[in-house]
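Below sits my pick:
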Amino acid sequence: MSRTSFPSKIAVTLAVLALTTSAALAANLALVSGDKAPGMRGYNPEGKRIVVLYKPGTVTLLNFWATWCVPCRQEMPALQELHSKRSKDGLQIVGVHAGYVDYEDLEMFLDQVKVDYPIVKPDERWLNEWGGISVMPLTFMIDGDGKVMRRYLGATEEQIAGLIYDVEAALDGRELGPIIIPEVPNVSTEADKP
């Protein structure tokens, strides 16, 4: 019977841990309709702790964005209009800043774009729960049971219109529209960051 050295056991343990972590992240990156949505916690620009809850009878949009993301800025007025129009009907929109920004810069940015739905600057752990966010805007529509209804990547005019249609359909108890996949996506990545 051979004996495995202590360093070899550590190496095997680390390899298994790395594979398990990679698999968990890959699973989150591929969240699809019906999957359980991870949680979200962080702080608003004023430093108040925010915990996003999925409540029965509501539809939640978690919109991952960053101040440097041009398509995100283009999408925000439509999200604000949707929030103003349908929040009384059970719509909860939460903007999740997915990049580094200090609170002062975030407040100045939000003063310019004029959104009044909650904005969360999450702890890194919560971004990792969603598989890390490397392409934005990325929006998840979640039902009141905490299940992903649909994922939206990008912000072409057609995609924004489709997202709005789907939110209103979900709130009104109708079927969601077709999934829109544009030929040319309107997204930003870390490479676009100034």
About this structure: The chain has two domains: 1-30, 32-192. The radius of gyration is 19 Å.
